[in-house]
């Protein structure tokens, strides 16, 4: 039997993205975002929902670029910290000891400590209400060499943080099945 | 050291959404979608990226509504099947033996066998290139009663399918940390 939970913004799984940009004073800053994902294949685009009041909102608008940095599970404390406090008041990236690198492709910094980095140029700014959906065209994806298996990104080695509606972080678990394959049995 | 993977549409983790709608002949249909996520808090909205050529694209445009059904890992065969074939040629939901229910809130069917169902009314249709981003306003979230722990959605009990860029499905693994909590230590 199904129970109604009401009109709530949730899905499962949700990602934990560390969205980094230069702020309006050109200082590197980042925040944690669970609302977003891939939104187009060609051109490849990623969307992130950012509340209009956030420091990151004005930084992305000014600099027209951001990076999405995917933390590993051992970085849950740092990721959570980036989501709880504002870069208006403090240098969060220094406090969390992230190694900040200036992207050569977009006008934004990335967090070299994260195993997966996606560099985006702002393509669309869509006002949906409380949040702007910033759609970034992906100019490059960079992964730590040790997260690849035979040249393919290995989710177990990236070990990304999953965010749940219960306000908890989880690991990725075991392999279930091959996609574009297991379903053929029903053809 | 970071390796460039090029300009690719990916993020980690990605969801496995079964996006259901009535087609242009008002027959229930669904497809698997890994590109999407929550895109706004107020009003609560979910976005799903659908290639312009897909049967689901014309169905959502005609009926102005869709549901996002989150399959559990034991439904990987059915989910994968919905992603591999088109509802133009066959009745996928009948073949995969889904129990289809007409939503009372939006003009779309939902899949009662999935533990989590999100009912959406089409709010925005954003052409981003190969894909339309359909932004749906969430009118209700319904969950199987046995997926709640103390009234809160329990990701371990929902057991949602995770999609990886390596074209594989994974389970959600172990608890890592409490969000809006573990990061306080860096304050």
Q: Main attributes?
A:
homodimer; 187 residues; mainly beta; Pnp Oxidase, Chain A; 4 helices; 15 strands; globular
Strand order of the largest sheet of chain A: 4-3-7-10-11-6-5
Q: How much of the polypeptide of chain A forms β-strand, as a percent range?
A: over 45%
Let me know the largest β-sheet of chain A.
7 strands, antiparallel
CATH superfamily of chain A: Electron Transport, Fmn-binding Protein, Chain A
Determine the most extensive contact between two protein chains: A-B, 102 and 102 residues
Give me the CATH fold name of chain A. Pnp Oxidase, Chain A
Helix and strand pattern of chain A: EEEEEEHEHHEEEEEEHEE
Helix and strand composition category of chain A: mainly beta
How many domains of chain A? 1
| Tally of alpha and pi helices of chain A | 4
Oligomer: homodimer
Strand tally of chain A is: 15
According to CATH, what is the class of chain A? Mainly Beta
**Percent helix range of chain A:** 10-25%
Low-confidence stretches of chain A: none
Average of pLDDT of chain A:
97
What is the gist of this entry?
Helices cover 14% and strands 47% of the residues of chain A. Chain A is mainly β and 187 residues long.
Structure commentary:
Chain A is built from four helices and 15 strands. Chain A has 187 residues and is mainly beta. The first copy, chain A, has a seven-stranded antiparallel beta sheet with strand order 4-3-7-10-11-6-5. In chain A, strands 2-14-15 form a three-stranded antiparallel beta sheet, with no helix packed on it. In chain A, a hairpin with a 3-residue loop joins strand 10 and strand 11 (131-144). The longest helix of chain A is centred in the first third of the chain and has 9 residues, at 55-63. Chains A and B meet through strand 1, strand 2, strand 5, strand 6 and helix 2 of A and strand 1, strand 2, strand 5, strand 6 and helix 2 of B.
